[in-house]
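tl;dr need the bound structure. longer version: we got a ligand (zinc ion) that a collaborator sent over and nobodys looked at where it sits. i said id run it. heres the input, straight from their email, havent touched it
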Amino acid sequence: MNLKPGFEKYIPFQPQPIEGRTWPDKTITKAPVWCSVDLRDGNQALIDPMNLQEKLEYFHTLVDIGVKEIEIGFPSASETEYEICRELIEGGHIPDDVTIQVLVQAREHLIRKTFEAIQGAKHVILHFYNSTSTLQRKVVFHADCDAITKIATDAADLIYEMAQPVIAGGMDLRYEYSPESFMGTEMDYAAEICAAVLDHLHATAEKPVILNLPTTVENCLPNQFADMLEYFIRKLPGRERAIISLHPHNDRGTGVATTELGLLAGAERVEATLFGNGERTGNVDMVTLAMNMWTQGVDPRLDFHDINKIKEMYERCTKMEVGKRQPYVGELVFTAFSGSHQDAINKGVHYMKESGTDMWEVPYLPIDPADVGREYEPIIRINSQSGKGGAAYIMEHDFGYDLPKAMHPEFGAIVQKESDRVGKELQPEQIFALFDREYLSVPKTYQLVRHSFQEDARHGDASWVKFQGVIGYQGADMEAAGEGNGPIDAFFNALHQLPRGAIDGYQFVDYQEHAISSGSDTQAVCYIHLKDPKGEDVFGVGKSHNINRASLRAILCAINRSVRQGN
Ligand code: KIV
Ligand code: ZN
Protein backbone atom coordinates (compact mmCIF):
# COMPACT_ATOMS: atom_id res chain seq x y z
CA MET A 1 0.00 0.00 0.00
CA ASN A 2 1.39 3.36 -1.03
CA LEU A 3 -1.20 5.74 0.33
CA LYS A 4 -1.07 9.43 -0.53
CA PRO A 5 -0.71 11.49 2.64
CA GLY A 6 -3.85 13.64 2.88
CA PHE A 7 -6.90 14.68 0.90
CA GLU A 8 -5.17 13.53 -2.30
CA LYS A 9 -5.95 9.91 -1.44
CA TYR A 10 -9.68 10.36 -2.01
CA ILE A 11 -11.33 9.68 -5.35
CA PRO A 12 -13.69 12.52 -6.23
CA PHE A 13 -17.30 11.58 -6.92
CA GLN A 14 -18.08 11.30 -10.63
CA PRO A 15 -21.38 13.09 -11.27
CA GLN A 16 -24.00 11.41 -13.42
CA PRO A 17 -24.32 13.35 -16.68
CA ILE A 18 -27.97 14.25 -17.33
CA GLU A 19 -29.62 16.44 -19.92
CA GLY A 20 -32.63 18.60 -19.15
CA ARG A 21 -32.98 17.79 -15.47
CA THR A 22 -36.42 18.80 -14.20
CA TRP A 23 -36.10 18.49 -10.42
CA PRO A 24 -34.73 22.03 -9.78
CA ASP A 25 -38.05 23.53 -10.89
CA LYS A 26 -40.13 21.47 -8.47
CA THR A 27 -41.17 21.98 -4.84
CA ILE A 28 -42.38 19.59 -2.18
CA THR A 29 -46.15 19.84 -2.03
CA LYS A 30 -47.13 16.66 -0.22
CA ALA A 31 -45.80 14.29 2.39
CA PRO A 32 -44.04 11.14 1.23
CA VAL A 33 -44.95 7.72 2.59
CA TRP A 34 -42.91 7.54 5.79
CA CYS A 35 -41.18 4.39 6.91
CA SER A 36 -39.40 4.33 10.25
CA VAL A 37 -36.19 2.32 10.38
CA ASP A 38 -35.52 3.21 14.03
CA LEU A 39 -36.05 -0.32 15.28
CA ARG A 40 -33.69 -1.82 12.69
CA ASP A 41 -31.07 0.58 11.28
CA GLY A 42 -31.29 2.81 14.36
CA ASN A 43 -31.25 -0.09 16.77
CA GLN A 44 -28.34 -1.88 15.12
CA ALA A 45 -26.23 1.26 15.59
CA LEU A 46 -26.74 1.46 19.36
CA ILE A 47 -24.02 0.62 21.84
CA ASP A 48 -26.68 -1.29 23.78
CA PRO A 49 -29.43 -2.36 21.39
CA MET A 50 -32.95 -1.96 22.78
CA ASN A 51 -34.49 -4.78 24.79
CA LEU A 52 -37.99 -6.08 24.14
CA GLN A 53 -39.71 -3.60 26.46
CA GLU A 54 -37.85 -0.66 24.97
CA LYS A 55 -38.59 -1.74 21.41
CA LEU A 56 -42.27 -2.13 22.24
CA GLU A 57 -42.45 1.32 23.80
CA TYR A 58 -40.60 2.81 20.84
CA PHE A 59 -42.91 1.01 18.42
CA HIS A 60 -46.01 2.41 20.15
CA THR A 61 -44.54 5.92 20.05
CA LEU A 62 -43.98 5.58 16.29
CA VAL A 63 -47.59 4.46 15.91
CA ASP A 64 -48.77 7.47 17.95
CA ILE A 65 -46.70 9.79 15.75
CA GLY A 66 -48.62 8.40 12.78
CA VAL A 67 -45.95 6.30 11.05
CA LYS A 68 -47.75 3.64 9.02
CA GLU A 69 -44.77 1.58 7.84
CA ILE A 70 -42.32 0.46 10.52
CA GLU A 71 -39.26 -1.69 9.92
CA ILE A 72 -39.23 -3.71 13.13
CA GLY A 73 -35.94 -5.55 12.69
CA PHE A 74 -33.96 -8.28 11.10
CA PRO A 75 -35.75 -11.36 12.45
CA SER A 76 -33.40 -13.86 10.81
CA ALA A 77 -30.32 -12.22 12.32
CA SER A 78 -30.66 -13.36 15.94
CA GLU A 79 -32.99 -15.11 18.38
CA THR A 80 -33.70 -11.79 20.12
CA GLU A 81 -34.73 -10.13 16.87
CA TYR A 82 -36.93 -13.10 16.04
CA GLU A 83 -38.60 -13.03 19.49
CA ILE A 84 -39.31 -9.31 19.23
CA CYS A 85 -40.99 -9.85 15.87
CA ARG A 86 -43.10 -12.65 17.31
CA GLU A 87 -44.09 -10.63 20.38
CA LEU A 88 -45.20 -7.70 18.23
CA ILE A 89 -47.39 -10.01 16.15
CA GLU A 90 -48.69 -12.34 18.86
CA GLY A 91 -48.99 -9.66 21.54
CA GLY A 92 -51.45 -7.74 19.35
CA HIS A 93 -49.31 -4.61 19.31
CA ILE A 94 -49.75 -3.80 15.63
CA PRO A 95 -52.76 -1.66 14.71
CA ASP A 96 -54.66 -2.71 11.59
CA ASP A 97 -53.55 0.35 9.64
CA VAL A 98 -49.85 -0.22 10.34
CA THR A 99 -47.59 -2.36 8.16
CA ILE A 100 -44.53 -3.96 9.68
CA GLN A 101 -41.43 -4.28 7.57
CA VAL A 102 -38.75 -6.94 8.06
CA LEU A 103 -35.28 -6.83 6.56
CA VAL A 104 -33.40 -9.80 5.17
CA GLN A 105 -30.28 -10.34 3.07
CA ALA A 106 -30.80 -11.93 -0.33
CA ARG A 107 -29.90 -15.37 1.04
CA GLU A 108 -32.06 -18.44 0.99
CA HIS A 109 -31.89 -19.68 4.60
CA LEU A 110 -32.41 -16.18 5.96
CA ILE A 111 -35.40 -15.63 3.68
CA ARG A 112 -36.95 -18.90 4.88
CA LYS A 113 -36.45 -17.91 8.54
CA THR A 114 -37.99 -14.51 7.84
CA PHE A 115 -41.15 -16.09 6.43
CA GLU A 116 -41.44 -18.05 9.68
CA ALA A 117 -41.03 -14.90 11.72
CA ILE A 118 -43.87 -13.00 10.02
CA GLN A 119 -46.55 -15.68 10.31
CA GLY A 120 -49.84 -14.31 11.58
CA ALA A 121 -49.14 -10.64 10.76
CA LYS A 122 -51.77 -8.78 8.73
CA HIS A 123 -49.71 -6.31 6.72
CA VAL A 124 -46.05 -6.98 5.98
CA ILE A 125 -43.35 -5.54 3.74
CA LEU A 126 -40.62 -8.10 3.11
CA HIS A 127 -37.48 -6.07 2.47
CA PHE A 128 -34.51 -7.82 0.90
CA TYR A 129 -31.22 -6.40 -0.26
CA ASN A 130 -27.82 -7.05 -1.73
CA SER A 131 -25.01 -4.68 -2.39
CA THR A 132 -24.56 -3.42 -5.94
CA SER A 133 -21.91 -0.69 -5.81
CA THR A 134 -18.79 -0.70 -7.95
CA LEU A 135 -16.62 -0.67 -4.84
CA GLN A 136 -18.39 -3.56 -3.12
CA ARG A 137 -18.37 -5.62 -6.32
CA LYS A 138 -14.63 -5.02 -6.53
CA VAL A 139 -13.43 -5.35 -2.94
CA VAL A 140 -16.09 -7.47 -1.20
CA PHE A 141 -17.74 -9.82 -3.70
CA HIS A 142 -15.16 -10.07 -6.48
CA ALA A 143 -18.15 -10.54 -8.74
CA ASP A 144 -19.39 -9.02 -11.96
CA CYS A 145 -22.77 -7.38 -12.52
CA ASP A 146 -24.42 -10.57 -13.81
CA ALA A 147 -23.46 -12.46 -10.66
CA ILE A 148 -24.76 -9.67 -8.45
CA THR A 149 -28.01 -9.51 -10.43
CA LYS A 150 -28.41 -13.26 -10.04
CA ILE A 151 -28.21 -12.95 -6.22
CA ALA A 152 -31.06 -10.45 -6.36
CA THR A 153 -33.25 -12.29 -8.86
CA ASP A 154 -32.76 -15.68 -7.15
CA ALA A 155 -33.90 -14.09 -3.91
CA ALA A 156 -36.82 -12.45 -5.70
CA ASP A 157 -37.87 -15.81 -7.16
CA LEU A 158 -37.77 -17.52 -3.77
CA ILE A 159 -39.63 -14.70 -2.06
CA TYR A 160 -42.29 -14.64 -4.75
CA GLU A 161 -42.75 -18.39 -4.55
CA MET A 162 -42.90 -18.47 -0.74
CA ALA A 163 -45.25 -15.50 -0.67
CA GLN A 164 -48.02 -17.06 -2.74
CA PRO A 165 -49.46 -19.40 -0.08
CA VAL A 166 -49.01 -16.73 2.56
CA ILE A 167 -50.93 -14.20 0.48
CA ALA A 168 -53.58 -16.82 -0.26
CA GLY A 169 -53.83 -17.32 3.51
CA GLY A 170 -54.87 -13.69 3.89
CA MET A 171 -51.68 -11.75 4.56
CA ASP A 172 -51.27 -8.42 2.81
CA LEU A 173 -47.66 -9.04 1.84
CA ARG A 174 -45.68 -6.57 -0.21
CA TYR A 175 -42.05 -6.59 -1.38
CA GLU A 176 -39.22 -4.13 -1.08
CA TYR A 177 -35.85 -4.42 -2.76
CA SER A 178 -32.76 -2.35 -1.89
CA PRO A 179 -29.75 -2.24 -4.19
CA GLU A 180 -27.57 -1.52 -1.16
CA SER A 181 -24.98 1.24 -1.77
CA PHE A 182 -27.15 2.52 -4.62
CA MET A 183 -25.29 5.84 -4.49
CA GLY A 184 -22.04 4.09 -5.46
CA THR A 185 -23.60 2.05 -8.27
CA GLU A 186 -23.50 2.98 -11.97
CA MET A 187 -27.00 4.27 -12.64
CA ASP A 188 -27.46 2.24 -15.81
CA TYR A 189 -26.65 -0.91 -13.87
CA ALA A 190 -28.85 0.15 -10.92
CA ALA A 191 -31.78 0.54 -13.31
CA GLU A 192 -31.00 -2.80 -14.91
CA ILE A 193 -30.86 -4.81 -11.66
CA CYS A 194 -33.96 -3.09 -10.27
CA ALA A 195 -35.90 -3.80 -13.47
CA ALA A 196 -34.87 -7.47 -13.25
CA VAL A 197 -36.08 -7.64 -9.66
CA LEU A 198 -39.40 -6.02 -10.63
CA ASP A 199 -39.81 -8.65 -13.36
CA HIS A 200 -39.02 -11.55 -11.03
CA LEU A 201 -41.47 -10.24 -8.42
CA HIS A 202 -44.18 -9.82 -11.09
CA ALA A 203 -44.58 -6.17 -10.19
CA THR A 204 -47.44 -4.27 -11.81
CA ALA A 205 -48.84 -0.78 -11.48
CA GLU A 206 -51.60 -2.30 -9.33
CA LYS A 207 -49.16 -4.28 -7.18
CA PRO A 208 -46.04 -2.12 -7.23
CA VAL A 209 -42.81 -3.13 -5.52
CA ILE A 210 -40.92 -0.69 -3.31
CA LEU A 211 -37.52 0.09 -4.80
CA ASN A 212 -35.56 1.52 -1.91
CA LEU A 213 -32.48 3.37 -3.11
CA PRO A 214 -30.09 3.69 -0.17
CA THR A 215 -27.51 6.36 0.24
CA THR A 216 -25.78 3.75 2.36
CA VAL A 217 -22.81 6.09 2.72
CA GLU A 218 -23.34 9.69 1.67
CA ASN A 219 -20.72 10.45 -0.99
CA CYS A 220 -21.84 13.46 -3.04
CA LEU A 221 -23.63 16.78 -3.09
CA PRO A 222 -27.42 16.60 -2.70
CA ASN A 223 -27.92 18.02 -6.20
CA GLN A 224 -25.67 15.32 -7.63
CA PHE A 225 -27.79 12.72 -5.87
CA ALA A 226 -30.94 14.29 -7.33
CA ASP A 227 -29.39 14.09 -10.80
CA MET A 228 -28.63 10.40 -10.28
CA LEU A 229 -32.14 9.72 -9.11
CA GLU A 230 -33.82 11.54 -11.97
CA TYR A 231 -31.57 9.71 -14.40
CA PHE A 232 -32.31 6.34 -12.71
CA ILE A 233 -36.08 6.89 -12.84
CA ARG A 234 -35.91 7.80 -16.53
CA LYS A 235 -33.92 4.65 -17.22
CA LEU A 236 -36.11 2.27 -15.22
CA PRO A 237 -38.38 0.29 -17.55
CA GLY A 238 -41.95 0.24 -16.26
CA ARG A 239 -41.43 2.91 -13.60
CA GLU A 240 -45.13 2.69 -12.67
CA ARG A 241 -44.46 -0.79 -11.24
CA ALA A 242 -42.31 0.74 -8.53
CA ILE A 243 -42.64 2.95 -5.48
CA ILE A 244 -39.38 4.89 -5.33
CA SER A 245 -38.09 5.05 -1.78
CA LEU A 246 -35.11 6.89 -0.27
CA HIS A 247 -32.94 5.67 2.55
CA PRO A 248 -30.36 8.39 3.14
CA HIS A 249 -27.54 8.23 5.64
CA ASN A 250 -25.87 11.39 6.78
CA ASP A 251 -22.11 11.00 6.34
CA ARG A 252 -21.62 14.44 4.82
CA GLY A 253 -24.21 16.01 7.13
CA THR A 254 -26.53 16.57 4.18
CA GLY A 255 -28.97 13.70 4.64
CA VAL A 256 -31.93 16.07 4.94
CA ALA A 257 -30.97 18.00 1.79
CA THR A 258 -30.37 14.75 -0.10
CA THR A 259 -33.82 13.54 0.88
CA GLU A 260 -35.52 16.79 -0.01
CA LEU A 261 -33.87 17.00 -3.42
CA GLY A 262 -34.54 13.28 -3.88
CA LEU A 263 -38.24 13.98 -3.37
CA LEU A 264 -38.05 16.67 -6.05
CA ALA A 265 -36.36 14.17 -8.35
CA GLY A 266 -39.29 11.75 -8.10
CA ALA A 267 -39.05 9.73 -4.86
CA GLU A 268 -42.33 9.09 -3.08
CA ARG A 269 -41.30 7.29 0.09
CA VAL A 270 -38.68 7.98 2.77
CA GLU A 271 -37.02 5.68 5.29
CA ALA A 272 -35.84 7.69 8.27
CA THR A 273 -35.34 7.63 12.02
CA LEU A 274 -36.30 9.91 14.88
CA PHE A 275 -33.59 12.49 15.52
CA GLY A 276 -31.41 10.78 12.89
CA ASN A 277 -30.19 7.80 14.88
CA GLY A 278 -28.46 5.15 12.75
CA GLU A 279 -25.15 3.77 11.54
CA ARG A 280 -22.18 6.18 11.89
CA THR A 281 -23.56 9.71 11.42
CA GLY A 282 -27.05 8.29 11.38
CA ASN A 283 -29.99 7.88 9.06
CA VAL A 284 -31.84 10.95 7.90
CA ASP A 285 -33.86 12.64 10.66
CA MET A 286 -37.59 12.17 10.25
CA VAL A 287 -38.43 15.04 12.61
CA THR A 288 -36.42 17.61 10.67
CA LEU A 289 -37.83 16.43 7.35
CA ALA A 290 -41.40 16.53 8.61
CA MET A 291 -41.10 19.87 10.36
CA ASN A 292 -39.32 21.40 7.36
CA MET A 293 -42.44 20.54 5.37
CA TRP A 294 -44.65 21.91 8.15
CA THR A 295 -42.88 25.29 8.03
CA GLN A 296 -43.56 25.46 4.28
CA GLY A 297 -47.28 24.99 4.82
CA VAL A 298 -47.22 21.30 3.84
CA ASP A 299 -48.88 18.77 6.15
CA PRO A 300 -46.23 16.09 6.86
CA ARG A 301 -48.90 13.73 8.21
CA LEU A 302 -46.83 13.02 11.29
CA ASP A 303 -47.63 14.33 14.74
CA PHE A 304 -44.77 16.01 16.61
CA HIS A 305 -46.91 18.32 18.75
CA ASP A 306 -45.30 17.00 21.93
CA ILE A 307 -41.69 16.77 20.84
CA ASN A 308 -40.28 16.75 24.36
CA LYS A 309 -42.22 13.59 25.22
CA ILE A 310 -40.87 11.87 22.11
CA LYS A 311 -37.36 13.03 22.90
CA GLU A 312 -37.64 11.74 26.46
CA MET A 313 -38.73 8.28 25.22
CA TYR A 314 -35.99 8.27 22.59
CA GLU A 315 -33.22 9.17 25.03
CA ARG A 316 -34.41 6.65 27.60
CA CYS A 317 -34.78 3.74 25.17
CA THR A 318 -31.69 4.34 23.02
CA LYS A 319 -29.44 5.88 25.72
CA MET A 320 -28.52 8.43 23.05
CA GLU A 321 -28.68 12.18 23.58
CA VAL A 322 -30.44 14.71 21.40
CA GLY A 323 -28.12 17.67 20.81
CA LYS A 324 -28.96 21.05 22.27
CA ARG A 325 -29.08 22.57 18.79
CA GLN A 326 -30.87 19.72 17.01
CA PRO A 327 -33.50 21.30 14.72
CA TYR A 328 -36.99 21.65 16.19
CA VAL A 329 -36.19 19.78 19.41
CA GLY A 330 -32.85 20.84 20.92
CA GLU A 331 -32.94 22.62 24.23
CA LEU A 332 -31.60 25.85 22.69
CA VAL A 333 -33.45 26.03 19.40
CA PHE A 334 -36.12 28.43 20.63
CA THR A 335 -33.65 30.64 22.42
CA ALA A 336 -32.19 33.90 21.16
CA PHE A 337 -29.03 35.11 22.80
CA SER A 338 -28.31 38.05 20.53
CA GLY A 339 -29.90 41.35 21.50
CA SER A 340 -30.89 42.28 17.96
CA HIS A 341 -32.56 38.88 17.52
CA GLN A 342 -34.42 39.38 20.79
CA ASP A 343 -35.64 42.80 19.69
CA ALA A 344 -36.83 41.42 16.37
CA ILE A 345 -38.63 38.49 18.01
CA ASN A 346 -40.27 40.90 20.41
CA LYS A 347 -41.45 43.05 17.52
CA GLY A 348 -42.66 40.03 15.58
CA VAL A 349 -44.74 38.81 18.51
CA HIS A 350 -46.20 42.32 18.97
CA TYR A 351 -46.94 42.55 15.26
CA MET A 352 -48.76 39.24 15.34
CA LYS A 353 -50.87 40.33 18.31
CA GLU A 354 -51.70 43.74 16.92
CA SER A 355 -52.32 42.78 13.30
CA GLY A 356 -54.37 39.72 14.21
CA THR A 357 -52.64 37.90 11.34
CA ASP A 358 -53.30 34.18 10.84
CA MET A 359 -49.80 33.58 9.58
CA TRP A 360 -46.60 33.02 11.54
CA GLU A 361 -44.41 36.06 10.97
CA VAL A 362 -41.75 36.22 13.64
CA PRO A 363 -38.14 36.86 12.64
CA TYR A 364 -35.56 34.35 13.88
CA LEU A 365 -38.21 31.79 14.81
CA PRO A 366 -38.89 29.69 11.72
CA ILE A 367 -41.56 27.82 13.62
CA ASP A 368 -44.08 28.66 16.34
CA PRO A 369 -42.58 26.80 19.33
CA ALA A 370 -46.11 25.88 20.43
CA ASP A 371 -46.43 23.65 17.34
CA VAL A 372 -44.00 21.21 18.89
CA GLY A 373 -45.27 21.74 22.44
CA ARG A 374 -42.54 24.16 23.35
CA GLU A 375 -43.20 27.49 25.05
CA TYR A 376 -42.40 31.10 24.52
CA GLU A 377 -40.83 31.46 27.97
CA PRO A 378 -37.43 30.09 27.13
CA ILE A 379 -37.23 31.98 23.85
CA ILE A 380 -35.11 34.73 25.26
CA ARG A 381 -32.27 34.34 27.66
CA ILE A 382 -30.40 37.26 29.02
CA ASN A 383 -26.65 37.41 29.04
CA SER A 384 -24.13 40.16 28.62
CA GLN A 385 -24.66 40.06 24.83
CA SER A 386 -28.39 40.74 25.06
CA GLY A 387 -29.82 44.06 24.07
CA LYS A 388 -32.28 46.28 25.85
CA GLY A 389 -35.29 44.59 24.29
CA GLY A 390 -34.54 41.18 25.79
CA ALA A 391 -35.02 42.22 29.39
CA ALA A 392 -38.20 44.12 28.50
CA TYR A 393 -39.46 41.06 26.66
CA ILE A 394 -38.98 38.87 29.72
CA MET A 395 -40.69 41.45 31.91
CA GLU A 396 -43.68 41.49 29.61
CA HIS A 397 -43.96 37.81 28.71
CA ASP A 398 -43.02 36.27 32.01
CA PHE A 399 -44.33 38.85 34.47
CA GLY A 400 -46.86 41.04 32.64
CA TYR A 401 -44.99 44.38 33.01
CA ASP A 402 -45.18 46.30 29.72
CA LEU A 403 -42.29 48.71 30.19
CA PRO A 404 -42.50 51.90 28.11
CA LYS A 405 -40.08 51.94 25.20
CA ALA A 406 -38.15 54.88 26.60
CA MET A 407 -37.43 52.87 29.74
CA HIS A 408 -35.93 49.85 27.91
CA PRO A 409 -32.36 51.23 27.70
CA GLU A 410 -32.30 52.07 31.41
CA PHE A 411 -33.54 48.68 32.58
CA GLY A 412 -31.55 46.86 29.86
CA ALA A 413 -28.34 48.48 31.16
CA ILE A 414 -29.14 47.44 34.74
CA VAL A 415 -29.67 43.83 33.59
CA GLN A 416 -26.57 43.79 31.44
CA LYS A 417 -24.42 45.12 34.29
CA GLU A 418 -25.66 42.37 36.57
CA SER A 419 -25.07 39.72 33.90
CA ASP A 420 -21.51 41.00 33.47
CA ARG A 421 -21.01 40.96 37.24
CA VAL A 422 -22.16 37.37 37.72
CA GLY A 423 -20.57 36.32 34.43
CA LYS A 424 -23.48 34.26 33.20
CA GLU A 425 -26.92 34.21 31.74
CA LEU A 426 -29.71 35.53 33.99
CA GLN A 427 -32.88 33.56 34.49
CA PRO A 428 -36.26 35.34 34.31
CA GLU A 429 -36.65 35.22 38.11
CA GLN A 430 -33.31 36.98 38.53
CA ILE A 431 -34.42 39.66 36.06
CA PHE A 432 -37.59 40.20 38.03
CA ALA A 433 -35.60 40.39 41.28
CA LEU A 434 -33.50 43.16 39.70
CA PHE A 435 -36.64 45.00 38.62
CA ASP A 436 -38.09 44.68 42.09
CA ARG A 437 -34.92 45.87 43.80
CA GLU A 438 -34.48 48.77 41.38
CA TYR A 439 -38.04 50.05 41.16
CA LEU A 440 -40.67 48.40 43.33
CA SER A 441 -38.59 48.12 46.51
CA VAL A 442 -36.26 51.06 46.02
CA PRO A 443 -35.29 52.55 49.46
CA LYS A 444 -38.00 55.06 50.37
CA THR A 445 -36.10 58.27 51.15
CA TYR A 446 -39.36 60.05 50.47
CA GLN A 447 -42.59 58.25 51.11
CA LEU A 448 -46.26 58.98 50.96
CA VAL A 449 -47.64 58.79 54.51
CA ARG A 450 -51.21 59.71 53.73
CA HIS A 451 -53.09 61.76 51.19
CA SER A 452 -56.43 62.73 49.77
CA PHE A 453 -57.66 64.16 46.48
CA GLN A 454 -60.51 66.51 45.93
CA GLU A 455 -61.82 66.68 42.40
CA ASP A 456 -63.85 69.50 40.91
CA ALA A 457 -65.31 68.39 37.58
CA ARG A 458 -66.13 71.25 35.19
CA HIS A 459 -67.95 71.37 31.86
CA GLY A 460 -66.80 68.93 29.23
CA ASP A 461 -63.66 66.95 30.11
CA ALA A 462 -61.95 69.61 32.18
CA SER A 463 -61.45 68.99 35.88
CA TRP A 464 -59.45 70.53 38.67
CA VAL A 465 -57.82 68.34 41.32
CA LYS A 466 -56.47 69.28 44.74
CA PHE A 467 -53.91 67.14 46.49
CA GLN A 468 -53.47 67.27 50.25
CA GLY A 469 -51.07 64.90 52.01
CA VAL A 470 -48.07 64.12 54.13
CA ILE A 471 -44.66 63.07 52.77
CA GLY A 472 -42.28 61.34 55.13
CA TYR A 473 -38.61 62.30 54.88
CA GLN A 474 -35.85 61.12 57.26
CA GLY A 475 -38.29 60.43 60.09
CA ALA A 476 -40.06 63.79 59.78
CA ASP A 477 -43.42 64.46 58.18
CA MET A 478 -43.90 67.27 55.66
CA GLU A 479 -47.29 68.66 54.78
CA ALA A 480 -47.79 68.89 51.03
CA ALA A 481 -50.56 70.51 49.04
CA GLY A 482 -50.96 71.32 45.38
CA GLU A 483 -53.46 71.70 42.57
CA GLY A 484 -53.46 70.63 38.96
CA ASN A 485 -55.51 69.42 36.02
CA GLY A 486 -55.27 65.82 37.23
CA PRO A 487 -53.97 63.80 40.18
CA ILE A 488 -50.43 63.54 38.83
CA ASP A 489 -50.21 67.22 38.05
CA ALA A 490 -51.62 68.14 41.47
CA PHE A 491 -49.18 65.85 43.28
CA PHE A 492 -46.23 67.07 41.25
CA ASN A 493 -47.11 70.67 42.07
CA ALA A 494 -47.45 69.75 45.74
CA LEU A 495 -43.90 68.32 45.69
CA HIS A 496 -42.54 71.55 44.24
CA GLN A 497 -44.04 73.46 47.11
CA LEU A 498 -42.55 71.34 49.87
CA PRO A 499 -40.68 73.24 52.55
CA ARG A 500 -36.86 73.48 52.42
CA GLY A 501 -37.04 72.95 48.66
CA ALA A 502 -36.88 69.23 49.52
CA ILE A 503 -37.83 68.00 46.08
CA ASP A 504 -36.99 70.52 43.49
CA GLY A 505 -35.94 70.67 39.91
CA TYR A 506 -37.72 67.54 38.57
CA GLN A 507 -39.57 67.82 35.28
CA PHE A 508 -42.44 65.56 34.33
CA VAL A 509 -41.90 63.91 30.90
CA ASP A 510 -44.29 61.04 30.43
CA TYR A 511 -46.62 58.60 32.07
CA GLN A 512 -48.00 55.18 31.18
CA GLU A 513 -50.07 52.65 33.02
CA HIS A 514 -51.71 49.26 32.60
CA ALA A 515 -53.45 46.66 34.67
CA ILE A 516 -51.60 43.60 35.86
CA SER A 517 -53.32 40.49 37.13
CA SER A 518 -52.20 37.54 39.12
CA GLY A 519 -55.04 35.10 39.78
CA SER A 520 -58.14 37.10 40.70
CA ASP A 521 -56.08 40.06 41.92
CA THR A 522 -55.75 42.98 39.51
CA GLN A 523 -53.58 45.98 40.24
CA ALA A 524 -52.53 49.08 38.35
CA VAL A 525 -48.89 49.55 37.34
CA CYS A 526 -47.73 53.03 36.52
CA TYR A 527 -44.47 54.11 34.88
CA ILE A 528 -43.25 57.69 35.25
CA HIS A 529 -40.55 59.33 33.21
CA LEU A 530 -38.94 62.42 34.80
CA LYS A 531 -35.94 64.61 34.11
CA ASP A 532 -33.86 65.01 37.24
CA PRO A 533 -32.39 68.38 38.29
CA LYS A 534 -29.38 67.72 36.03
CA GLY A 535 -31.65 67.05 33.07
CA GLU A 536 -31.01 63.27 33.07
CA ASP A 537 -33.80 60.77 32.40
CA VAL A 538 -35.05 58.87 35.40
CA PHE A 539 -37.89 56.38 35.60
CA GLY A 540 -40.12 55.23 38.42
CA VAL A 541 -42.61 52.42 38.77
CA GLY A 542 -45.55 52.23 41.18
CA LYS A 543 -48.08 49.51 41.77
CA SER A 544 -51.33 49.61 43.71
CA HIS A 545 -54.95 48.52 43.66
CA ASN A 546 -55.71 52.21 43.40
CA ILE A 547 -54.69 53.80 40.13
CA ASN A 548 -53.96 57.23 41.65
CA ARG A 549 -51.81 55.73 44.37
CA ALA A 550 -49.88 53.73 41.74
CA SER A 551 -48.95 56.97 39.94
CA LEU A 552 -47.93 58.78 43.15
CA ARG A 553 -45.74 55.81 44.08
CA ALA A 554 -44.19 55.85 40.62
CA ILE A 555 -43.27 59.55 40.96
CA LEU A 556 -41.72 59.03 44.38
CA CYS A 557 -39.95 55.92 43.07
CA ALA A 558 -38.31 57.97 40.31
CA ILE A 559 -37.29 60.66 42.80
CA ASN A 560 -35.99 58.14 45.35
CA ARG A 561 -33.91 56.41 42.66
CA SER A 562 -32.51 59.75 41.57
CA VAL A 563 -31.70 60.70 45.17
CA ARG A 564 -30.01 57.34 45.69
CA GLN A 565 -27.81 58.08 42.68
CA GLY A 566 -26.80 61.37 44.37
CA ASN A 567 -28.84 63.76 42.21
O1 KIV B 1 -28.10 1.80 4.53
C1 KIV B 1 -28.46 0.82 3.88
O2 KIV B 1 -28.05 0.60 2.74
C2 KIV B 1 -29.37 -0.10 4.52
C3 KIV B 1 -29.98 -1.14 3.65
C4 KIV B 1 -29.95 -2.45 4.30
C5 KIV B 1 -31.34 -0.73 3.26
O3 KIV B 1 -29.66 0.05 5.68
ZN1 ZN C 1 -29.22 2.10 6.30
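gonna send this back to them w/ a short note. The first strand starts at residue 33 and ends at 36.
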